[in-house]
Design a protein that fits this description.
This protein has about 180 residues and is mainly β. The chain contains 1 helix and 12 strands; from the N terminus they run ββββββαββββββ.
Amino acid sequence: MKKWSIDPSHTGLEFAVRHLGISTVRGRFKKLGGTIDTAEDGTLKSVQVTVDPASIDTGDPKRDEHLRSADFFDVERYPEMTFQSTAVRSQGNGRYAVSGDLHIHGQTRPLTFEVDTTSPVTDPWGNLRAAASGTGKINRKDWGLTWNQTLEFGALLVGEDVKFTLEVEAVAATPALAR
């Protein structure tokens, strides 16, 4: 088994949610980390990610403060969001369906999302690195993020479905040159 550390400076978690039923607001979380385990042949085995919800950035400081408040993430009470895989199913050619437990806002629910991986490379400093892209969708209400307003024309102020993209670069625990 090979252990990898997520490189937070080369990793990002972005999301998109409908606003007023007519447009999409995008944002990201700036602080996250975690670990990945692979078999010696590179087959993905497990994923663990921790995200700081207070690091949310939508490009609008006032909106970000509202998202950090008790109306949404309540970062004072819930300072972490976590994902721990429970199953990884290969779909061939470096593609996987990753299932696990997503913990947000004091609620833990199952989540499955798609992941595409790259073959490892050795960086200029002798570290073995690999990358992966994950995509999925959640309904925020399933995790207790229920604040909303129904507008007079029937649309929701904030959409319930949240699409996410996770771009990960990870570094093997043992440098490539030490192998």
